[in-house]
What does this fold into?
Amino acid sequence: MKKYKIIFWITTGIIFLVEGVMPLSTLFFAPEHFNTGTKPLGYPDYFAYALIISKTLGATAIMLPKLSGTLREWAYAGLTFNLIYAVFSHAVVDGKFSYILSPIIVGIILAISYVYNRKIKLYGKNKL
It folds into this structure.
């Protein structure tokens, strides 16, 4: 159980930093770069704001263990869809391998977080 929790918190912490803190920090510390990832893909500026807010809320939701399980599931799903669409967008528009690989790696880390979150929940139920 301890191993599961360690893996969960490391992967979830990485997701929180990459999907929550980093995008939000661009709004405060480098506002000229808030749409660096979306502008070349042809998305409007308001989409970048919506994406930053959604990613921050989703990453925060998976960090809160006392939050409703349903909300956390939706947060995982939302972050997953975001990463899938990022892969497709970059593959179709610019085709740069590093831009395609980055959301795949983050998606794998998110999947590990999700799997170990489920293992912790199942282990806790079976222990009772």
Remarks:
- The chain has one domain: 2-127.
- The helical segments are 2-29, 45-63, 69-93, 97-127.
- Residues 41 and 93 are 6 Å apart (CA to CA).
- The chain has a mean pLDDT of 91.
